Amino acid sequence: MREREFWELLEEVFGRGYGRSLSVDQRLTALDNMTVVEALAAGVEPRVVWNVLCDQMDVPDSRRWGADHNAPPMPAA
């Protein structure tokens, strides 16, 4: 997943305003309490950030990848 795809999914799943608000306000406990913006700036893979955000916000798998997206492969460890 590229960062551009991350932002597209964020807007699709959460809505433009709420998604952008989440990206700067929501602390991700699984990522050392960083926000989405901080985690991406720190080099955390966008897919990892996306999954952590969705898990924390209880987004079901059926909605997680939007209408026209397939789940991208997980990054290599």
TrEMBL record:
Annotated protein name in UniProt: DUF3046 domain-containing protein
Pfam family, one: DUF3046
Natural source organism: Bifidobacterium pullorum subsp. saeculare DSM 6531 = LMG 14934
